[in-house]
Amino acid sequence: MSGSPKLAVQFDGVSKLLAGRQILDKLSFDVRQGETFVIIGYSGTGKSVTLRHMVGLMPPDEGSIRVENEEITTMSRRELEIMRRKFGVLFQSGALIAWLSLFENVELPLVEHTKMSRKKRAEIVQQKLEIVNLWQDREKYPAEISGGMKKRAGLARALALDPGIVLYDEPTSGLDPVIANEIDKLINRLKREHNMTQIVVTHDMDSAFEIGDRIGMFYKGSMIQIGTPEEIQTSTVPEVQHFITGGREGALSRRATTAIIRGVAPGMLSQRSLEAIKAEAPVATAEPGYVLLSEEEAEAAGVAPAEEPDFPTERDLAPEETEGPVETATQKPEPESLEPEESDT
Amino acid sequence: MNWKDNVISRALKGAGFTFVLLLEAIGHSTQLWHRRRAIFTQMHVIGTQSIPIASFFMLLIGMVFALQVGIEFARFGQTNLVGLVIVAAMVRELGPWMTGFVLIARVGSSMAAEIGTMRVAEEIDALEVMSINPASFVVMPRIVAYSIMGPVLTVVGTLVGIIGGGIVSNLQLGVTWADYLRFAEDGAEALDIYWGLLKSFVFSIAAASVACASGMKTEGGAVGVGRASRNTVVLSLTLVVFFNYLLTSFYRIVKMFVSGVI
Questions:
Q1: Is A97 close to B130, i.e. CB distance below 8 A?
Q2: Which domains does chain A have, with CATH numbers?
Q3: DSSP code, position A331
Q4: pLDDT band with cut points at 50, 70 and 90 for residue B112
Q5: Which A residues in the span 82-141 are in contact with B, Cβ-Cβ below 8 Å?
Q6: Integer Cα distance of A225 and A228 in angstroms
Q7: Of A57, A85, A99, the CB nearest to B128
Q8: ipTM
Q9: Nearest-neighbour CA in chain A from B105: distance (Å)
Q10: Nearest CA-CA distance, residue B62 and chain A, Å
Q11: At A201, phi and psi to the nearest 5?
């Protein structure tokens, strides 16, 4: 390779057929060392499959995958095991081992792959858990903590062996806007302070623009556009435009229009002031958020109510009209043909 | 392709996967010491925690068995011999496979569900990405613990069953404890006891491998986990009765050889 920036990962003409679907179709892209490369694209189209190929969990049908200039598609199982130590991977759900505490989860790669003393291990675990601000929760088990904490603990574990490349599978999905921003900041900090190569799969556009040095739009098995956040934002490719605006006219920030209100019945909402609702908005929850506003409040906040929510509301379920003029504005709707979130295979 | 091909090829694939997983786990048994904590935890879950339910089962089975045998033996005035039949049956048959059944119901199903949940929650993938082989980290400790605790529970269950039979013989059939124990001694010789333990060991390895393999193969979320758990119970029970027949046939040949018939 003669290119000036060193390459961390290279995909060259990679194809994969899964259950009769061409998931990857001559996929080619490079990730440079030290950059944050964001892969965006619709749910369930193969972004996670791309990550799996990168760490050799799935072999491609054809094509070449090189990690730090080593071809991984021809590696033996043992060679793959060694190669994988270059990677830290944060899975969508955190994928913490349920019967180990957070401390033990982060310690696990150290116990398995190093001959460090217990004291040295504890130091490293403390350092990693402090990065994600979970040291005080080290004795807790995965079942006792929230989704956001699981992701942060998963990140601490991914960092345990100081990998050169960190992969993130939807690091902000299912998190509330405040925690999502924190994860973005963390990713930026890791790049700044540790010069890590980071590859992030996401469909959270705010996050993509915030953290990405380069963004690649994944569509129908290959990259239809790769560019800087500015280039993507001003893209003239129709699919990219459609994706980053969420199918609406003009770019709308998802987080700006998204709030989560818990413990409030729809009928009560009309009696509350917009200020009160705003103050309550950033409540941490693992569920995807939506806004419940009355018509005037929606107007005041500048949120256009969605025409048809894609899930049944109280009004659809109840035979008669509910009392209050309650409008339900869904969060940015996904394109009709595709499933909503989480089912990325 | 007709459905028969499908069923047969799927069964063969499943059997192959299970066998390879078992071999892989055996290959990782060099890490026994490294994984001792996981093994002890599993031994506690599989063995110690199963003692009450296994004992309860075997106690009642021993009691019922004594009653039924007592009814028949009374016709010949041989009620004193109840102990002999109970011990023979408990050691050779009822002990190994009834405790096997109890373990499959209590442990096998939950083992498959646990590993299946790890699979769908990407925990197995996470292990592989961390270059930690799931066959070593997840499967080996479970198979080792199961195959140690299966025979241990069989010993406990068999003893409890014999005691149950004794209680009924004494209280309801009017056999003295001295007679019960005297004939009980004739019910089993060393070979029978070893054979019973061998059976239990084979059942345990089969059930644990099936549970781990079903768990590892799980796909499709909560429904998949349910399916893995159900398949584990059905397949393990089938394997236990099948292996039981094979081992008993083999036992007959060995017994005849030992006693000089062939």
A1: no
A2: 7-244 (3.40.50.300), 266-327 (no CATH)
A3: S
A4: very high
A5: 82, 84-85, 87, 89, 91-93, 95-99, 108-109, 112-113
A6: 10
A7: A57
A8: 0.82
A9: 22
A10: 38
A11: -95, 125
